[in-house]
Amino acid sequence: MEILGYDRVNGVGVRNYVAVMATVGCSGDAAERIVQIYPKAKLLVHLQGCAQTPPDIDLVEKVLVNLALNPNVYSVLLVSLGCESVDADRVADKISSVKNVEVIRVQERGLSHAISRGSEIVKKMCDEAEKVSRTKVDFSNIKVAIKCGASDSTSGIISNPVAGRVADMIIREGGTVIFGETTEIIGAEHILAKRAVDDTVARKMFTAIEEMEKRAMSMGVDMRGGQPTGGNIKGGITTIEEKSLGAICKTGTSKLVDVIGYGDVPSKRGLIFMDSPGREMEALTGFAAGGAQIILFTTGLGAPQGFPIVPVIKFSGNPEVCARLNEHIDVDLSPVFYGRESLQEAAQRLFNEIIDVAKFKRTRAEILAYEKFFNIYVKGPVI
Amino acid sequence: MMSQRKAIVVDEKDNVASALANLNKGETVEVTIGSIVYKIQLISDIPFGHKFALKRIPRGEYVIKYGEVIGRASRDIEVGEHVHVHNVESLRARGDLQKTSL
Q1: Domain containing B15 — which CATH number?
Q2: Beta strand A256-260 with A176-179: parallel, antiparallel or unpaired?
Q3: Cα A107 to the chain's mean position, in Å?
Q4: Which residues of B touch A341 (CB under 8 A)?
Q5: Does B1 reside within a domain?
Q6: Between B20, B85, B95, which is nearest A238 by CB?
Q7: What is the per-residue pLDDT across A115-149, written as a single tens digit (0 to 9) for each?
Q8: What are the percentages of helix, strand and coil residues in chain B, rounded to 5?
Q9: Which of A51, A82, A83, A271 lies 20 to 30 Å from A114 when distance is taken between CA atoms?
Q10: Can you state the percent helix, strand and coil of chain A, rounding each to 5?
């Protein structure tokens, strides 16, 4: 199947953004002020990048590089403070082999100069980006990440099973589906393991889950209340096992071809599991770094978040939520709840939405620009 | 798929059903498992999306949904009773049950 997309050196974009990315939390204000002047550019700010252990600094650098390399991004301005642990030049070097990147540093001549210099660069980049147009590309270039958030009991019986059918459709078209949320596999790993292509992939998945469970247990408490969250419990989900069994429905029935680390780019096509936390702010970042051009997001209670450089499509099978939070829901699955539509029909409708969003349609989160707050998942302390 | 139905049983092996509307204590709810329709009288109010027991689940027994174990009854659960965090415990990530060294 052919779609229109931005054909880049390292993949196909469905958006054509100039990204203004802070390398550290301390330069976030400068990055934001530049985007205020050129709102066409996309702001990428976070809280990491300094006073962390070296493995976390390496992880942050990798995620920054991979976010910049997401095919939805045309070119990148890195906004550095100057003295942070993340090496802005090293990050820029890794991006520069694929796309245009420039670096400015607040500590060189202060905020005012960073804003004026930065906005000049961004203006030039935005002008260049406008000259690029879409060409026919094969759908198999598309990577779709699937996440569930603010889940309730309808997630496991409607929106996640619909997402699973869409995942199968994407993979049948030769595309890639990434899912994550390691915590939300606890109690359902035996089912996914049967779908692993080989023992190595199954073992990698078990190890990731075991480590996540150990980390939760190291606090010496019952994880319930944190996972499932207070909202999940209010929505009728009782244990992490119940949440996980509902959550894995979104992975469909395809073989699990690989398990990758947080923010890594898949090297295989098909169904990929990314070791990542369930929290929106970190999970979406990991998927965007993994090169997902579109994110599908199932919700029960109505999670509104998008992501600056990736369109996030929201859908829910909770009729009351779809009506009350209409401005946040892209695809209303309440016809499935009322028995007027089958899961497969709803999946076709959602698949068509993906094609429309890839072409031109803006998602609710894009229209509302509900996308500023995200974070990079790190494992160690702030020191 | 689930029109007019007040509750759904996801898998034939399940011992709980999920409410598709706010249900009241004393109400009799029909649930379909396979081709058989069962009538369950509720002994608690069941909010939308929450679960109730299809059969008696003694303390320590597994609670089954999606045909899989979702936890263990932390006290005896009667037919038609609300099944949730007050009477079901998780078997996983229970840091509180670990023996502390030192």
Answers
A1: 2.30.130.110
A2: unpaired
A3: 31
A4: 1
A5: no
A6: B85
A7: 999 999 999 999 999 999 999 999 999 999 999 99
A8: 5, 40, 60
A9: A51
A10: 45, 20, 35
What is the average per-residue pLDDT within A26-48? 97
The answer to whether A339 contacts B71, with C-beta atoms less than 8 Å apart, is no
Chain A residue numbers with beta carbons less than 8 Å from the beta carbon of B18 are 153, 157, 236
Decide if pLDDT at A41 tops 60.
yes
Best B62, B66, B98 member to test A by mutation, with max A CBs in 10 Å, is B66
pLDDT in tens, B22-41: 999 999 999 999 899 999 99
Which pair of structure tokens corresponds to residue A53? 């252990």
Fold (CATH) for A17-131: Rossmann fold (3.40.50)
Residue of A nearest to B91 (CA): A241
Does residue B14 lie in a domain region?
yes
* Domain extent for B77: 7-93
ipTM entry? 0.94
Which among B48, B50, B68 is the nearest to A245, CB-wise? B68
Number of structural domains found in chain B? 1
What single DSSP character describes residue A353?
H
